Amino acid sequence: MSFDTGLLFWLLLLSSSSLCFGSELDIQCLKSVKRSLIDPSGILRSSWKFSQDGTTNSICNFMGVICWNPDENRILGLSLGSLGLQGQFPRGLEHCTSLVRLDLSNNSLSGPIPSGISWQLPDLSSLNLSYNRFSGEIPVNISEMTYLYSIGLQHNKLTGSIPGKFALLSRLESFNVSDNLLSGPIPVALSKFSTSCFSGNQGLCGVPFDSCSTSYGDYSIGIIGAAVGFVVGFVGALYISHCLFFLRDAPALRLSHT
């Protein structure tokens, strides 16, 4: 076997092994997602069928599974919107190592968005969790998912503020957090999006809404004033108690010196 033929054979073998390994991880990903979700309509149960030996005819034929190439079984995206799914954010997505699109919209999913979503889905470009019941704060580390160009979080029960670090998402072209329970100032970098992208959050302020510098400024000043007052009061009380102690024991001290 010549050197060139041997090299070509080795590269083909390496490529084949990589594809098999990728397929195995993707199968593991889908199995974990299926186990972690409640599927009242049985859509995933009837469509996502795995063989006993861990292989499958083609996961690219599964409902909601989008592949890079039908012959490779490498998942490009999961489009699981409007399937009546329940439970929390699905587990095992980190095994879908080629995933760039995730759509879980219009289901009945609840609980927090995972704080580790950035390492689970580092290459994600589109995230749609809209029209669910997700609660808690928006994870700050979504700002580390720098390939994101679309984020849909509208119509949930998210609380807290919009992370200021979202300014790091330079590719972001679509952003919607309307109809949640968010509060605080809207990051300046997101002010390019229309009012409708933030509406339904009574606590939000700043562009494109009215300025919130006064209200939040007064609030901050109030907090700082309270803290300063506490420190001054504590020091004052300590000083007064020291003086009283000195005045009380001063006669005794004078007698002890005479």
> Judging from the principal axes of the Cα atoms, what is the shape?
elongated
Cα-to-Cα separation, first versus last residue = 112 Å
User: Could you spell the SSE succession in H and E letters?
Assistant: HHEEEEEHEEEEEEEH
The biggest beta sheet reads: 6 strands, mixed
Describe what this molecule looks like in 3D.
The structure is a single chain. With 258 residues, the protein is α/β, with parallel strands linked by helices. It has 2 domains: 3-210, Leucine-rich repeat, LRR (right-handed beta-alpha superhelix) (Alpha-Beta Horseshoe); 212-258. 34% of the residues lie in helices and 17% in strands. The chain is built from 4 helices and 12 strands, in the order ααβββββαβββββββα. It has helices spanning 3-36, 43-47, 117-120, 213-257, and strands at 65-67, 75-79, 86-87, 101-103, 108-112, 126-128, 133-137, 150-152, 157-160, 174-176, 181-185, 203-205. Strands 1-2-4-6-8-10 form a 6-stranded mixed sheet, with no helix packed on it. A hairpin with a 7-residue loop joins β1 and β2 (75-79). The longest helix has 45 residues, at 213-257. The protein is elongated.
Task: Give the topology, please.
Blueprint (H helix, E strand, L loop, with lengths): L2 H34 L6 H5 L17 E3 L7 E5 L6 E2 L13 E3 L4 E5 L4 H4 L5 E3 L4 E5 L12 E3 L4 E4 L13 E3 L4 E5 L17 E3 L7 H45 L1
Parallel strand pairs: 2-4, 3-5, 4-6, 5-7, 6-8, 7-9, 8-10, 9-11, 11-12
Antiparallel strand pairs: 1-2
Membrane topology: Single-pass type I membrane protein
Pfam families: LRR_1, LRRNT_2
Protein name: Os01g0891601 protein
